[in-house]
Amino acid sequence: MSMTQNGTVNKTDTLDTPDLGRREFLNALYKGSPDNLYLELRCIHPTTGEVRSLWGRMGKKAELSAALKQAETLNHEGYGVYFAPCLRKLKQGKAEAAALVTALWVDVDCGNNTHQRDQNLTRLRDFDPVPSFILDSGGGWHGYWLLDQPFHLQGDEDRQKIAGILRGLFAALGGDPEYVKTVAGIMRLPDSVNTKPERGGVVVNVVESHPERRYPLNTFVWLESQPAQPSFDSLKVVTLNGNGHHPLPPRTESYLASGAANGSRNTELFAAACQLRDAGYSQTDAERELIPRHLASGSSEREALATIRSAFSRLAREPIAAPREQARQQVEQLVSRFGQPETEREHPTMEQISKAVTACAHLNPVEWAAERQRLKVLCGDGLKIADLDRLYREAKRELDRAIFAAASATEQYLIADGCMVFEKQTERGTSRQTVAGWVGWILERTSRMDDDGQVEHLTVLELTCGEETLTLHVPSELFGDPNALQRFIAGHAGENFTVRAGMIRHLAPAILALSGTYPRRKTYRFMGWTEINGKWVYVSPEMSVHADGQIIEPPEVELETRLRDYRLCGAGWQESLEAFKAAIATLPNHLASSLIAFAMLPVVQRFFPAAATRPAMHLVGTSGSGKSEIASLLTSFYGKFTRDTPPGQWGDTINTVEALGYALADTLYWVDDYKTIYADERTFTRFLQSYSRGMGRGRLTRETKLRHERPCRGLLLSTGETTLEGEVSILSRMLVLEIPPWEKRDPGGAALAKLEAVRDQLPGFTAKFIQWIAAQADEGTLAKELASRFESNVKGYRDSLTSKLGRQANTGRMVQNWAVLVTTYQMLRRFTAELDCDEVLPSWQDSIVETIKAVQQERAGQVFIDTLGQLLASGELMLARDMREPEEPRPGTTIVGYLDERYVYLLPDVAHRAVLRVQPLKFNTPAIGAQLKEDGWLIPGTNNLTVQRRIRGIPTRLWQLKADFLGCDDCDGSSVTASQCESLQ
Fold first, then answer.
1. Helix (H) or strand (E) holding 148
2. 3-class SS at 530?
3. Distance CA 943, CA 841 (A)
4. Distance of alpha carbon 616 from its chain centroid, rounded?
5. Of the residues 419, 515, 914, 916, which has the fewest C-beta atoms closer than 10 A?
6. How far does CA 540 lie from the centroid of its chain?
7. What does the pLDDT read at residue 298?
8. pLDDT tens, position by position, 395-408
């Protein structure tokens, strides 16, 4: 079957990829592969050379999907995306990590020559055997031959065998001469963009697909190339090291074994290339040896080729002589000089003997025994064999120390028998210590961004112990504290996942080393506003919005599972507007404007001046009034909610409610069903006060440092059949709205049924409003307009209250609450007017007067007066008329004060105790006196709330109150006079 892939689909089979061509290609290539092998994706930037390696195990669909998704993101950022045809057994790009060959491949470079492209394509199609897949890379052709049986790479011999076949295949088809023919090779990923500047953004696509074409490996054996044997006059040359090359210095051997440190990779690569050149290696052989090592460090193949080419462009130096040959030569020189007949023999000096023995330090004990005998003959009776052996051992030790010191650090972590092992090269040989009897890998690291610049790193760790496999989400900070990391793993995974004694400090380095390069993701852990590239963006799961509308490639947003229903949607404006109309129709008429303004307040709250309050709203109603339905409707402007899916409930602990609200930075936060049995007065009061101030619960770390606060940042929308009574500080922070019964305003639920059909479109209205707000925020006019409107509305409400109530009692916070709400309404009015749909917005109605009266009635001073009036009316208390000779009270009646024509004089403590018997108050006597003074009822003394009068000739401290303090604000200005008080007795 021949085809060209241009379209995309959104579903997958084995591998979760978005493109049909790539999916079919990868499924055919890796069909039946072992689950524990890794697919490597390598992303290389064509200009900067930066390399990012991504990994996914064949048996872990989520890993593969995440790696491919991240590769696509990097591809959009300008990285070229490659994959390794050979699956890996470890997360390493070197040839030694390659484990399975499922196909052979070739890269035929054509440049921009159209005629050459056609010729090379014809050559590929006519080749026997015919390729299973042909891909157009934009700069040439890629051919793949699927194997009928995957070839398992067991050692160097197998790797060299495949490399030889690849060399032959490239030679037969005119493949790219700069391509490194090795099992560590990489090829461009199908359906990715070739990001080389000269390619013009062409997409790598599948041109021909024949997955049924599969061949035995023996079909290609004839292509296997053999390295040329060096010869001289038709005689093979065999050097001392047995591989046809001169020996390499320890520095080069160390580089080939373990690579170079970051910052010196190019220097070490160049030095190693020069040494290989001097030792007689060809440039091709040097590339085969050095490029896999360079790529294993995450460096660029192009860079490696250029460096090696530069080294081989220079003249070779004299090769390093083999140490053993040098030793024999020195001994031979002594023998030829001092080996005369005994009568003429001259013995070598001690310095000459010592120098010869030092040279013999490179010999093994058997070779040394032969040379020692020759040296003993030269020394005569001057030195014993034991003396020569002692010199040899000392020279051997010095040589070993020098070699060990010259070699780079050879510590490494590896996996052996299902354990993590620390291996170190010492003077005495290789030392191995088991770190843990299990293996840990990092699958990915997620950096969770917050809008205040805080970043939390979370590492996904997979642990394997025998047949048991676990996945843990570990705070990355624990990798800096090995003891804490060990406690976390053992606490979450169990006693099998402990560390060997004395090896805790190796735990984190071992996991990091064995993990190789792992995917790194950046996510936002909140829903709300943030600045990206100097522009305001509202981020949410699945969709983010800025001044130009929906972002095509939105940043990733992760919220808690309980908040999974929060998301914006890209519904059409007309559909969203119809949904908005349907929502208005279901709300109580007199509350609709306030409720809609509060629903949109989260979008603009961040841009209000610092002096503006942050109100909560509490919907009160009997069971069946529809308060939860209204709350779910308002929250549906930010996601998909029903009355039975509140993100929070007061039955949770207050700490849970607070923590869930932290992620909803600029979003409506619905907490359902308040009851006093759920949240006690003290806890609820602390929460509401902290909420209004934007503060979290202050806590300390183990180091007695302040822990990072996580306040409730969502705008609180609460429901309940009751509210907290007698706590003015709470009521002044909440807009309490009483919801009338549902049946009275929507008989039969007709309006609600109409809304349900379009409810999913409500987030589209919010998204449009967000776009409008973002445009003004970017222009710098939004904050100024909000500040101006807010200040004007505060002044307007204060003037209105003065005219309606005649006096004010702590109305500042309540006035600001309503001023914030009406300012939001005004912005909504302007928004709808600009879109020519302002008729959908209901007229503004507020209940600020009722709110303030309700709050005043809950003030301790007012409660004290009301309760005292009831006790006076009941006859339990009385006011005496004469302070000098007060009348005797009736049995069971207590005198709490005295009156004259102008004032009532209360005994503060007596009256307070009497009121407390029937009405608990949270304030002591001085606090109530201060409130009465603030309300204008109490006339204080010079330096005290009380005045001094004589009762029966005894000086007594009394509260001096206006005689009409027991009056009623709603009684048309009438008041309780002294004579009326008398009747209460």
1. strand 140-152
2. strand
3. 55
4. 30
5. 916
6. 14
7. 64
8. 888 887 776 666 55
Specify whether the backbone of 836 is left (phi greater than 0), alpha (psi in -120 to 50) or beta: left
E runs forming strands in 153-193: 187-188
Residue of 82, 34, 135 whose CA lies nearest to 295: 82
Cβ–Cβ contacts within 10 Å for residue 676, how many?
A: 14
The Cα 309–Cα 312 span in angstroms is 5
Return d(Cα 173, Cα 125) in angstroms, integer. 11
Phi, psi dihedral angles at 328 (to 5 degrees)? -65, -35
Q: Is 25 helix (H, G, I), strand (E, B) or coil?
A: helix
Q: Is the peptide bond before 129 cis (omega within 30 degrees of 0)?
A: yes
User: For 935-957, what is the HEC assignment?
Assistant: CCCECCCCCCCCEEEEECCEEEE
- Placement of tokens 């190789």 in the chain: 516
Tell me the two tokens of residue 955. 């000086």
CA distance 465 to 489: 13
pLDDT of amino acid 857: 60
Q: Are 627 and 649 in contact (CB under 8 A)?
A: no
- Please give the Cα distance from 461 to 853 (Å, whole number): 58
pLDDT (tens digit, 9 = 90+) per residue, 727-777? 666 777 888 888 988 888 888 888 899 999 999 999 999 999 999 999 999
| Phi, psi angles (nearest 5°) of residue 656 | -65, -45
pTM: 0.55
Rounded distance between C-alpha atoms, residue 459 and residue 438, angstroms: 18
Q: Which fold has domain 549-853?
A: Rossmann fold (3.40.50)
- Convert the pLDDT of each residue in 63-92 to its tens digit: 888 889 889 988 998 899 999 999 999 888
**Residue 234, token pair as written in the block:** 């038709």
CATH number of the domain at 20-223, out of 3.30.70.1790, 3.40.50.300, 3.40.50.12160, 3.10.50.30?
3.30.70.1790
Which residue matches tokens 């495949």?
Answer: 162
- Report the distance separating Cα 585 and Cα 745, nearest Å: 10
| Domain assignments of the chain as residue spans, ordered by start | 20-223, 231-312, 323-406, 412-499, 549-853, 859-984
Q: Coil, strand or helix: which one is 445?
A: strand
Residue 94, pLDDT score: 80
Asked if 604 contacts 824 with a C-beta cutoff of 8 angstroms, the reply is yes
Q: Which two tokens stand for residue 957?
A: 């401290």
Cα(14)–Cα(79) distance, integer angstroms = 25
Tokens 């010196």 sit on residue = 264
CA gap 680, 889 in Å, rounded: 41
- Please tell me the predicted confidence (pLDDT) of residue 545: 94
Q: What pLDDT is recorded for position 340?
A: 57
Query: Strand pairing of 231-232 and 98-109?
Result: unpaired
SS3 content of the chain, % helix, strand, coil (to 5): 45, 20, 35
The pLDDT of residue 181: 79
The crossing angle, in degrees rounded to 10, of helices 860-874 and 925-934 is: 100
Other residues' Cβ atoms within 10 Å of the Cβ of residue 531: 11
Q: Report the pLDDT value the prediction gives residue 343, as an integer from 0 to 100.
A: 46
356 φ, ψ (degrees, to nearest 5):
-65, -40
Which helix (H) or strand (E) element contains residue 717?
strand 715-720
Residue (of 739, 693, 731) closest to 848 by Cα position: 731
Nearest of 714, 729, 730, 635 to residue 674 by alpha carbon: 730
Q: How far apart are CA 700 and CA 677, in angstroms?
A: 29
CA torsion sign, 134 to 135 to 138 to 140? negative
Q: Pick from 140, 155, 69: which is nearest to 105 by CA? A: 140
Question: What is the token pair recorded at 527?
Answer: 């829903």
Tokens of 520: 């790194």
Measured over all CA atoms, what is the biggest interatomic distance in the chain, rounded to whole angstroms? 155
Amino acid making up residue 409? A
Q: What are the residue ranges in the chain where pLDDT is below 50? A: 1-19, 226-243, 343, 808-810, 968-985
Q: What is the length of the chain?
A: 985
Q: Work out the number of other CB atoms within 10 angstroms of the CB of residue 310.
A: 12
